[in-house]
Every structure is written in structure tokens, then in C-alpha cells.
Amino acid sequence: MLKIENLHARVEGKEILKGLSLTVNAGEVHAIMGPNGAGKSTLGNVLSGREGYEVTAGSVSYNGIDLLALEPEARAAAGVFLAFQYPVEIPGVNNTYFLRAAANAQRKARGEKELDSMQFLKLVREKLKVMQISDELLHRAVNEGFSGGEKKRNEIFQMAVLEPQLAILDETDSGLDIDALKQVAQGVNMLRSPDRAFLMITHYQRLLDYVVPDFVHVLADGRIVESGDKSLALKLEEHGYRGIGESQPAGA
Ligand code: ADP
Ligand code: MG
Ligand code: MG
């Protein structure tokens, strides 16, 4: 589904990604871990097409197409979803309205019929029910005054409504108490499917107790320096990032 090869990217003239390669197949959950400033959020931002990120070398193929050639809206329409590390607040814009606009933009780009407010409300109620999220979030402005946990839960809810093929979660577990963490993890687990892939960027092993990844990668200084299965995350928890990438490749 996703093939990243030798990706180099700059932010404000500074090279952050320095030859990152990663392959993700449909149905897989990949955890990306790594020290602060390694380029994890930059990777998510480059994949979603956020402004200000300049790709200087390498390629990203998504379902066989050149992802980097698409505008951000076209990427979203093609099923790429990014949950931001710091979700934005949009005061005065109702959450349901915002989500319907996003869902309909996606449908329109795919040549599908847009949903009217009744149809959308029905879809939203179904998703809230399966995700076990209270409908109180619907009536508030987008993320305005939301607690950290509510913002993250709202992102998972957005993801459930938009049904992406490739979901990138950037530290969706940060700052969550254990109940909120479990709820986010449950949401991810419910959305796992053979035709959907996840890139879960996380600092901590804790989330991976609840969402068991197929692969764990360490991103350090703009590259994937080590890959393994979930035991790599446990090893990192124990030993930290020192020495990672200097050892033999995983499995060698
Ligand atoms: P991580 O998510 O792994 O902590 P980031 O991708 O956020 O790392 O950041 C990697 C590096 O790029 C850091 O040195 C950070 O300061 C820099 N950086 C990221 N985004 C910006 C930006 N918008 N402007 C300037 N520097 C940035
Ligand atoms: Mg960081
Ligand atoms: Mg980050």
C-alpha cells in the first residue's frame, strides 16, 4: 500500500528526513518510535502533504500512485488520514458541521454522492455507538476547550467517520490517562481491517500493550535505524534509544 524510498525532506531549510525507507502493506499496524526531534511528526506531515515541508529526494508510492504529486485534499480523498500530535481548535465551528464538510469533500473527490444532514447524522450516530463515544462532542466547536483526552478521542472518532485506508496517528497516546488510552486503543483496534493500514507514532511502549503492532521501527536522525516486532518496543522501554541502530539489523 505504501512504499517510502530514500525520503529526504526539509523544514525551514533544515534537512530533517535523511533517507527514510519504509514499506507498509494493507492490514498491517506499524509503530514508529524514536527520540524527540527525530523527525516522526515530520514524516506524518510530509505524507499528509502539510505546507512547509519540502521533499528534496526519494519517493512515496501509495497504492501504486505517486503520493507526493497529490494535493493534500487529494491525499485525504484517496484515503490518507493524519491525526495530529497537536489537534487544532476551530472556535465557532461546530464539530458535526466540520466533520460533514470533510466527509463530503472526500465523497465528492471520489465521485460519490454527498450526504445530507439526516444521512450524515445517522452515520455519525452509528460510529459514536461502536466507538462508545458520547454524543456530547458533536455539539461543541471543533476541539474548543476539549481536554487532551477529548481531542484525541475526537480524532479517533473523525477517523471512524472518514474510514481511511492509511491512518497515521501522531502520538495519539500522549498525555492520556489510562481510561482514555484504552478508549483510543479500542477505537484503533475496532478499525483494524485487512484493507486498512496504520502508522502509529508513539513515544511510549504503553499504547502497544493495547494495540499490538505487527512491526516496530525506530526513527532516529531522519532515518529508520532498526525494525523488529513488538519485542523491540519492550527492549526500547528497558534500554532507551542508546545503541539502537549501531547493532546488527533486526533478525541478523
Ligand atoms: P519528532 O516528532 O520526532 O519529535 P519532529 O518531526 O517534530 O520530531 O521535528 C524534527 C525536527 O524538525 C526538530 O528539530 C524540529 O525542531 C524541526 N521542525 C519540525 N517542524 C518544524 C517547523 N515547522 N519549523 C521549524 N523546525 C521544525
Ligand atoms: Mg516530539
Ligand atoms: Mg512529534
From TrEMBL:
Q: What superkingdom heads the lineage? A: Bacteria
**Assigned keywords, A-Z:** ATP-binding, Nucleotide-binding
Among SUPFAM superfamilies, the record links this protein to:
P-loop containing nucleoside triphosphate hydrolases
The UniProt entry, under CDD domains, shows: ABC_FeS_Assembly
Keyword check for Nucleotide-binding: yes
Q: Which InterPro entries match?
A: AAA+_ATPase, ABC_transporter-like_ATP-bd, FeS-cluster_ATPase_SufC, P-loop_NTPase
Q: Which Gene3D superfamilies match?
A: P-loop containing nucleotide triphosphate hydrolases
Enumerate the spans annotated as ABC transporter domain. Answer: 2-246
* Annotated protein name in UniProt: Fe-S cluster assembly ATPase SufC
Please tell me the species this chain comes from: Rhodanobacter ginsengisoli
